[in-house]
Amino acid sequence: xxxxxxxxxxxxxxxxxxxxxxxxxxxxxxxxxxxxxxxxxxxxxxxxxxxxxxxxxxxxxxxxxxxxxxxxxxxxxxxxxxxxxxxxxxxxxxxxxxxxxxxxxxxxxxxxxxxxxxxxxxxxxxxxxxxxxxxxxxxxxxxxxxxxxxxxxxxxxxxxxxxxxxxxxxxxxxxxxxxxxxxxxxxxxxxxxxxxxxxxxxxxxxxxxxxxxxxxxxxxxxxxxxxxxxxxxxxxxxxxxxxxxxxxxxxxxxxxxxxxxxxxxxxxxxxxxxxxxxxxxxxxxxxxxxxxxxxxxxxxxxxxxxxxxxxxxxxxxxxxxxxxxxxxxxxxxxxxxxxxxxxxxxxxxxxxxxxxxxxxxxxxxxxxxxxxxxxxxxxxxxxxxxxxxxxxxxxxxxxxxxxxxxx
Length: 407
Fold this sequence. Notes:
- The chain is of the alpha/beta class.
- 53% of the residues lie in helices and 12% in strands.
- It contains 13 helices and ten strands.
- Strand 9 and strand 10 form a beta hairpin.
């Protein structure tokens, strides 16, 4: 037996070379689930017929999970070390052969009887999610509260419809799941799937299920994993809403900073308690530069989303159009030339006057800032040009999200 490096999965059981390609692959990420796994697999194979394959991904268990799984007619993959639920799902996805992928926790809390209905709904949808009933006594109160809070947060920040977006039983079309390019390693994998499904405009539906008490040791730690899920939601909100989180704040901040710099460039402003002079002018100018960087970062975040396969926002298509890019590059070059010439003129005048005390501080700061702005405009135009081909070839399509329970 060949032992692969720790960051890869060791395939313990493989299908026969002549095995037919299944319609659906059921993925069971499992970490120390030797107690629950016999019940889960027995129920699965009593429900599933032809056209299914079951893959158990042993995520570095130490309790004999692999041995239990090998007693059933399923494929078994094993991580030499514990890497997290998200990593286990991605490992299973890489080995799955089915057109549909159904993910189910291996703790016996979800009914295997729901899987045929998931597969049926995947004929007309890209993602099917099973909603646990809210009033179930099988879920600890802290988990119920956490799921409710995360549903509200996902609805507010990402516009997700429906509920129970962190459910551990769901199915996706394999090609749609691969296009999501999942990155999560831990329990934040469901939040990532829900958010990216919305961003991709996938057709989503859901139906209610009964939730049962888990068997064996609880793996999810409410506070630790709750913060992990929260972090994933916040980071994806920042990256996938760049207009709201970076560009608009950058534009507002720039307007305030440049307005303040303009006023302070005329004269010092006196107040009852302190005065705003040339030092405040310099700070305002630097604030304008920083705000421009915020805008550029927002554009970069939007381009990251496009590179990951999401539909570009209309404002990004306009900003990255060829006339805007060329105009920005030309304006940047002119600004650099003008600022450089003006700085040289200021220094020459100072030298011609005997190189005494220098009083043109505001002019030098303003010219240096204009020089930096010009260089930023030029670099931003070149940066957009790198992605211009992909953006110009993009054919926008209306979102297909039909989230909600089927009739």
